[in-house]
């Protein structure tokens, strides 16, 4: 495969991943399409549909899926009693991955990574090897489920003889991977957390969130600096997210899909303004 010129990097971030749909809309509106898509966690989900159907209409398709998630139980839909029961029985997770798997199979069928119109690479975290793993071949749905297996929320995903957890553990915003694959222009679709100020945690779940954010941001800013050294080596655009705030850091915010449509539209406008100011075109 020839080295990609333009790569889209879609990072992790749970329900905040709706912002990435707005960014895709802004990019595709201006005729910017990827030669390579790299996705982690929810970014793998958004990226899979993009790689399968890299045309402006995919934004409406993704928007419909995110709107549907606000009114159905396709992701974290179990009620409190079922959630507690599963946590007690399994000891490892609150929700079943079956609803999400079924929904993805409806959308993507049995398509394989190597057969997509645009190459897609999906990051997950191998338990047995304690390592970042990149899916570049095999069923797309298996790769996305592995990449999105949020610790404590969804069970570890088994693919072959290995078990995987969320790709965000090892590489939440895989900018460096895009550069290593030869991309000379990279668009980073992130969910709006990397610039939000962190505060000292006061509750147990805040300790975990803040710790993860430190690791995520440290790696991303290091890879961003490396990509731009020497200046001009790689053209990197970190697209702005809109409609996110501190309320998205609440304990149960992973279940709150109510603002996804507003988040998509607000980010589409913000990202479009950024691209126009930067003079970005196909």
Mind explaining what this structure looks like?
The protein is an alpha/beta fold and 282 residues long. It is built from ten helices and eight strands. It has helices at residues 18-29, 42-52, 57-69, 80-90, 98-108, 140-147, 168-171, 175-180, 204-227, 260-278, and strands at 6-10, 36-40, 120-126, 131-135, 157-159, 162-165, 185-189, 235-239. Strands 1, 2, 3, 4, 5, 6, 7 and 8 form an eight-stranded mixed sheet that branches. Helix 2 runs antiparallel to helix 6 (140-147) and helix 5 runs antiparallel to helix 6.
Compact overview of the structure:
This protein has helices at residues 18-29, 42-52, 57-69, 80-90, 98-108, 140-147, 168-171, 175-180, 204-227, 260-278, and strands at 6-10, 36-40, 120-126, 131-135, 157-159, 162-165, 185-189, 235-239. The chain is of the alpha/beta class. Strands 1, 2, 3, 4, 5, 6, 7 and 8 form an 8-stranded mixed sheet that branches.
């Amino acid at each position: 495969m020839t080295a990609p010129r333009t790569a889209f990097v879609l990072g992790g971030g749970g329900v905040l991943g709706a912002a990435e749909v707005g960014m895709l809309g802004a990019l595709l509106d201006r005729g910017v399409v990827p030669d390579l898509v790299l996705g982690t966690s929810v970014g793998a989900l958004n990226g899979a549909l993009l790689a399968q159907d890299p045309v402006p209409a995919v934004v409406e398709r993704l928007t419909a899926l995110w709107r549907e998630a606000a009114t159905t139980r396709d992701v974290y839909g179990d009620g409190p009693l079922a959630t507690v029961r599963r946590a007690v029985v399994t000891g490892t997770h609150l929700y079943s991955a079956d609803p999400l798997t079924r929904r993805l199979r409806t959308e993507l069928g049995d398509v394989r990574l190597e057969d997509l119109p645009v190459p897609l690479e999906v990051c997950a975290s191998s338990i047995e090897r304690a390592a970042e793993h990149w899916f570049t071949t095999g069923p797309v749905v298996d790769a996305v489920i592995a990449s999105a297996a949020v610790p404590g929320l969804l069970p570890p995903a088994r693919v072959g003889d290995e078990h995987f957890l969320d790709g965000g553990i090892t590489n939440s915003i895989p900018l460096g991977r895009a550069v290593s694959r030869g991309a000379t222009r990279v668009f980073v679709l992130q969910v709006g957390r990397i610039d939000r100020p962190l505060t000292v945690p006061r509750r147990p779940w805040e300790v975990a969130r803040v710790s993860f954010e430190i690791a995520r941001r440290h790696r991303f800013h290091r890879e961003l600096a490396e990509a731009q050294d020497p200046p001009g080596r790689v053209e990197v655009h970190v697209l702005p997210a809109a409609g996110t705030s501190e309320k998205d850091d609440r304990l149960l915010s992973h279940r709150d899909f109510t603002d996804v449509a507003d988040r998509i539209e607000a980010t589409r406008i913000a990202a479009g303004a950024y691209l126009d100011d930067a003079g970005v075109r196909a």
